[in-house]
């Protein structure tokens, strides 16, 4: 019996080399190798692609000092960590001045992480050693990393070397695994086999069947009521027509700003850096066939919209908005229903709602993916002080305050008031 043997590639035999690249031009030059490494690694997600991070840096921190720590063999990248420098003195640092090196991540990133390629298990410790040896930082901040991700090895490396770490849980992000249709059931009938008559017609039927019956009935009723007032349809754009994409993005921004976000001043259209960021990631996704820009149109008018990316057999729901004048018809949920149906038809494996846990997402019976911030403190006096205050004293103080509040409520209850 012969046994097949896997042959090593030249890159697997080469030693890993770590270098520190300064500035945006050096970072931008990594795009091709960066995305190739991501596809070979354990977490191939759109928010870790080079285009996404470049858009973030260009729109949210164009003037910040940028250092990219890269481990590679030849041109092949195995780990890369872009870090932006900020000098902070606020409540988060207990008003102690600290220099922070952080991943290019904020609320609009939805999920953070480190680029890990084929030899990341070897490369990540080497990159961490290089970061530790670099002067100028008081704390490292790796934000919104999903629990269980390979990047959490950094915490083990830091604690092994005596660095203090702080963890803060930031997000419980909903996602829905999309079901597979069962193979046709065969039943015996007089010695012959026939297909079972009760088999579901589509994968989306299985999704609907798993939902709370009241929500399912309400959604169907609202779809029917809106359709009775005029034609309602789901329109999905891939962005290949650049002019049509620009018009569609303008409509999307208008819809997203029409509700409470517009009133609160948090809508995309009200901040140039947000318009730039979302426009850039949409155009980049359209170029590689990953954009899913969907609209719910009623009598020819767009009343709800979602900006999504389809990547690695998953649907990532980046943003959703709707015209609140149609609130009684649940246009946002109707739109979500169509997006999930489309994901099932495409053969995708998961619908990732992204962002925080919200009631409307819970209606779809999702699972939750927990994310946390990891902060690593250099062993200096001021960094130790901030770590002690933020991750030791402050949690104890909050727990004590909650206990006092509970006792006060209990006492008032006993006193009848």
What is the total number of structural domains?
2
**From N to C, what is the helix and strand string?**
HEHHHEEEEHEHEEEHHEHHHEEEHEHEH
- Indicate the low-confidence ranges by residue numbers: 1-8, 185-189
**Strand count:** 15
Helix content: 40-55%
The chain-level mean pLDDT equals 91
Report Rg: 25 Å
Describe the structure.
Helices cover 40% and strands 27% of the residues. It contains 14 helices and 15 strands. Strands 1, 2, 3, 4, 5, 6, 7, 10, 11, 12, 13, 14 and 15 form a 13-stranded mixed sheet that branches. The chain has a two-stranded antiparallel ribbon with strand order 8-9. Helix 12 (331-346) links the parallel strand 13 (314-322) and strand 14. Helix 4 (50-60) packs antiparallel against helix 11 and helix 9 packs across helix 11 (272-287). The model is unreliable at 1-8 and 185-189 (pLDDT under 50).
Structure described in brief:
The chain has 417 residues and is an alpha+beta fold. It has helices at residues 10-13, 23-28, 31-40, 50-60, 120-133, 153-160, 203-209, 213-228, 242-257, 260-264, 272-287, 331-346, 359-362, 381-414; strands spanning 17-22, 66-73, 76-88, 98-102, 115-116, 139-146, 164-177, 186-189, 192-195, 232-237, 291-298, 301-311, 314-322, 350-352, 367-377. The protein folds into 2 domains: 12-170 and 371-400, Gcn5-related N-acetyltransferase (GNAT) (Aminopeptidase, 3-Layer(aba) Sandwich); 202-348, Aminopeptidase.
Features:
single chain; 417 residues; alpha+beta; Aminopeptidase; 2 domains; 13-stranded mixed β-sheet; two-stranded antiparallel sheet; 14 helices; 15 strands; disordered N terminus
